[in-house]
Specification:
With about 130 residues, this protein is of the alpha+beta class. Helices cover about 45% and strands about 25% of the residues. The protein has a five-stranded antiparallel sheet, with helices on both faces. A hairpin with a 2-residue loop joins strand 4 (about 45-50) and strand 5. It is globular, with a radius of gyration of 14 Å.
Length: about 130
């Protein structure tokens, strides 16, 4: 997952090997310059993003996660990044990596556990 200003990565965390950075840079270059939510398919992975106010929040997820969990994750990342947003407008590449990469890592771990990340599924499970 990562946070970027247009195609400048401000913070990222990945626990997968391979060409994550290359692929995400290619995707960032394709994201239109307008606020939106969208999903790109690359190989068997889905890259979900939210662009809000020039800041892009992007994550990679396996198809099995669907769309709800990744977009809930991105909504949480938006909230977590809010305190950095003023400085993000002029920050250099990877300016927030030291501070924000651990946040990305923690939220990825939390949301990767379907029961913890998918509150709707958890609530349904508790109701049954």
């Amino acid at each position: 997952s990562l946070v970027a200003r247009s195609n400048t990565i401000l913070a990222e965390f990945t626990d997968s090997s391979g060409n994550f950075t290359t692929v995400t840079q290619s995707i960032l270059d394709r994201i239109p310059d307008k606020d939106a939510k969208c999903t790109y398919v690359y190989d068997r992975y889905l890259f979900h993003y939210v662009r809000d106010g020039g800041i892009v929040y992007l994550c990679m997820a396996d198809e099995s996660f669907g769309r709800r969990i990744p977009f809930a994750f991105l909504a949480q990342i938006q909230k977590d990044f809010h305190s950095y947003s003023g400085r993000a407008k002029t920050a250099i590449a990877y300016a927030f990596n030291r501070d924000f990469s651990p946040v990305l890592q923690r939220q990825m771990a939390s949301f990767s556990k379907t029961a913890g990340g998918d509150r709707l599924a958890k609530a349904k499970g508790e109701a049954e």
